[in-house]
Amino acid sequence: MREVLAQAAFQLFLERGFERTTVDDIVARAGVGRRSFFRYFPSKEDAVFPDHERCLAEMTEFLTAADDDGDPVGAVSDAARIVLRMYAANPEFSVQRYRLTREVPGLRTYELSVVRRYEQTLAGHLRSRFGEDGDGALRAEVIAASVVAAHNNGLRLWLRSGGEGDPEVAVDQALALVREVWGRPTASTAPAAPGASAVPAAPGVPLAVSGGGDGDGEVVVMVARKGTPMWRVVQQIEAAVGEN
Questions:
Q1: Computed from CA positions of residues 99, 105, 111, 112, in that sequence, does the dihedral angle turn out positive or negative?
Q2: What is the tens place of the pLDDT at every residue in 39-86?
Q3: Looking at residue 215, what is its pLDDT?
Q4: What's this model's pTM, rounded to 2 decimal places?
């Protein structure tokens, strides 16, 4: 019944426009009563996005079962692909919904609230891995926002094309960039000198070390990934020097 109501609603939205379609119109097209509609959908907006509640539940279940002690960023990136598969399962509907959402400001606002719920789900999982202390909560929020932004960038490219081709190509490329920036560093780092103290690394800067020098003072050694912005390197050097 939920699917029948959603199909009836969307057909009417396309034929008459979202604003001119009433709940009475939808139930008449579906051949049911008003009570049936509100049993499944709190509002007309919910009928445009009938699959997101199920997708959110699937994402939550996936993250709960994830064994990601070594790669939590990879886990939330994989969770985001659940949303992509939901869109890709019905390209025609997904493209039509995308176009309708662009035309109706109220639907765009509703969609943003749904996106925020996905983001909060990812952030909650990352907080459980990073902790709430220090910068753990901040990292969780920033990484979750990055994953959602990367996913949506690739997804919208596919939707704008009319659903042509494989949507995973652009999404995978975008998510790979997120993992490169925020994932666990893979570059090898040199051991610290005796008496050295590690300075927390920023994204894109795996290690900054201040160590004892010979004689007059200490030496700061910076190891950065290739392509790290110069301002980030300078920022970390200044932080290390300032602590000594």
A1: positive
A2: 999 988 888 888 899 999 999 999 999 876 778 999 999 999 999 999
A3: 45
A4: 0.70
Cβ neighbours around 27 below 10 Å, total: 19
The backbone region for 165, taken as left when phi is positive above 0, alpha when psi lies in -120 to 50, beta otherwise, is left
Phi-psi region of 66 (alpha: psi -120 to 50; beta: other; left: phi over 0): beta
Q: Are 151 and 177 in contact (CB under 8 A)?
A: no
Report the amino acid identity of residue 120: Q
- Please give the full DSSP string across 136-183, using - where no structure is assigned: HHHHHHHHHHHHHHHHHHHHHHHHHTTS-S-HHHHHHHHHHHHHHHHS
Residue with tokens 């891995």: 129
The predicted-structure confidence for 124-141, as pLDDT tens digits, reads as follows 999 999 988 778 999 999
How confident is the model at residue 223, as a pLDDT?
60
Q: Which domains does the chain have, with CATH numbers?
A: 1-48 (1.10.10.60), 51-182 (1.10.357.10), 197-242 (no CATH)
